[in-house]
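Quick question about two entries, pasted in order.
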Amino acid sequence: MLNTPVVIPTEFLTALGESFEQDSFIKLTLGKYRGEVAGLKNIYIRKVVIKGKPHLAFTSRFKTRDIVKNYPFDDGVARITEQLNEGFQHCTCFTLHKDLILDLQPGQGFRFRQVAPTLQTPVSDTHDKTKKRLIPALDKPYLHALQITDAVGNVYKNAQDKYKQINQFINLLHPMISAIPAGSLKQVVDMGSGKGYLTFALYDYLHQVLGLDTAVRGIEFRPDLVELCNQIAEDSGFKKLDFVEGSIADYPPTGINMLIALHACDTATDDAICKGILAGAELIVVAPCCHKQIRKEMSKAKQQPEIAALTNHGIFMERQAEMVTDALRSLILEYYGYKTKVFEFISDAHTPKNVLVVGTKATISPVDQEEVLKQIQAVKTFYGVNCHYLEKLMEL
């Protein structure tokens, strides 16, 4: 709680009241929280109608949960004033005619300014939402530029799967990112970013939902996609997002706090994991694509009789190679002190490449490292694998 109440400019309160009276109010966001409530990040406020009467719905966003409370309009305005005195240093009220912005100036109180409206479409005032998404389609210029939505935020029919994929990806990352120590997530690198669908969504989530100041970089070897993505980032006002041309293998393993590599082909996934380990990244997230290196070794080796039926047919061999490759990747991550999880990214209905391997930085004792090495060797021996490419990169 602040010792001295902060004066809220009367011009802001007047303009806020007028937006209610004129039915031009869209939503209000409180950010840059510096108060005493542990884990509180932002408060999002929208208009709802409950039993025929207008209310303001407050969604208080914490690291691991949301708390929603509804207030009658007058009580809601009073609550906004209270929150600005209890640690929130930034407020943006979106209306159909203009944006109302408050910024706390050290030693001077709140500065009020009005700018051209960001949004043109009212937010639904229905109390029960049909489905909550961390990346809503409304007011996302980058989604339109990437041909996922039209100009007013409607998702194209042929882009529904991609939009679902984006949101599921962010939903999966949400608890992992929330677990990273505060202030540690300064640089995220997306290895093999392609057209940048998930890179843009992650930047949006980090900055707009979590209120972080994290830099995000996409690495892509195709110059036309790098140019396209940099232009979209500039047009979207994403100042700490950039894309650079190059290969995963050549990118320097320094200053990376979180590394992503989705569908990097064959051993490019291992190049990415290697970079993340060497950088000491807090979080490594890969969705492997094709597993040719291990499959070739398994095909050359004389298989154990116990698994002959699982490798005689091409499709079975392919699936076994995928399993062995990603199991060894997980074990190697564990050897270097990462807690690992392997789970489904999205269902086969959207894409067959649906395994996500996640490594969260931790510690490991020398005794446990030796045990992991034994497991790695046992898997390799059983399946006739001489060397996993990631072992070679790490000189393990």
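Here is the second entry:
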Amino acid sequence: MLIKMQVDSGDIGELQVNVVDSNNIPIKDARVIIRRPRQIGDEQQNQMQQIEELNTDASGQTQSVDLNTPPLAYSLDENNDIQPYANYDVEVDAPGYETENIENVEILAKELAIQNVKMRQVEGNEQENINIPPHTLYYEYPAKIPEDDIKDVSEPGEIVLSRVVIPEYVVVHDGTPSSNARDYYVTYKDYIKNVASSEIYATWPQATLEANILAIMSFTLNRVYTEWYRNKGKDFTITSSTAYDQKWINGRNIFESISLVVDNIFDQYLSLPGVRQPILTQYCDGRRVTCPNWLSQWGSCNLGEQGYSTLEIIRNYYGDEMYINTAEQISGIPASWPGYNLDIGASGQKVQQMQEQLDTIANVYTNIPRVTADGIYGEGTQASVKAFQKIFDLPQTGIVDFATWYKISQIYVGITRIAEGIPR
């Protein structure tokens, strides 16, 4: 096990805290306190240093704040033994809600960390604090138990989906498959962002992030497509155990660079010719554990720094026949992306559908200007789209591209409770 160290003389990262209630409605004027955790050798808990006190705006968000981190180079060097990220504690309180405490939020150099907080109304229940454990590339977790990358689903009684579908939710069992652990219902995109933020460093090259996220998504969709755990009599989709699946951490922060990649490619996965199911793309860190024919996380970082493309990185590990495929269907959305960007001058049913959803969102997120659902993409619609993109950490282009379309759909579904039967 490595010795945890905090480094004060380094770089700067950013943190933004987003606060909603149990119905995903933003909470205005929540108080957010950011503290530096007690350092090794500190004798008294009161030596914890308060860094910032902030209040959320009408969108339930704080401004982003600069925080000290170790040098950027630490997270790019596989031979570095010093913790490459800083930890901070976040406390959130608002009248009528339980105080929420998140310990050890991870802040990386030159990256925006996003801490989402869902507050619970005061009910007299025991407070549940979140303590984010160390990153998988820094701490020693159980190594992945090898499996076949293509599952035999021809046996009688096997449950297999007829086509590859991006699920609206996955059910995460927070422990090993046989443990008596809690199950969490998590939206698919939020699950992927969480795993990627737990498994790789957001500071890595863009192609490296994309290659690793594709491996994470393909692994997940194989579990979904083959109904792997349900065939074993379980009521969940996947576990949080690194020995069996991928590291997922309840309540952890995510990173903007990872979030943007997921939003842009979340309907993709890895395929082989003649194989219908997504490939179970296993991987390892490549430093403590070596894994021939699997993706090496640190090795993929090095390849990205050498200028390898996303597909070149993937094929370097999984073979030249591996290709990037697209799912046939995305669950839980009112209307699918039209296949082209919506911008000034666009018109028609798809524009009107988007406007109707965006106007519903503007009822809740009041910093977004209201939209007239007339099917014509004018300057008013563009202004509303830009405001939406700002709130939900997307590039503020005013253009409804793939990522913006599905983010609007996701938020609209959450607000209107279309998936009302899903526990939250």
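Reply: The radius of gyration is 22 Å. Confidence is low (pLDDT under 50) at residues 1-7, 40-45, 418-424. Hope that helps.
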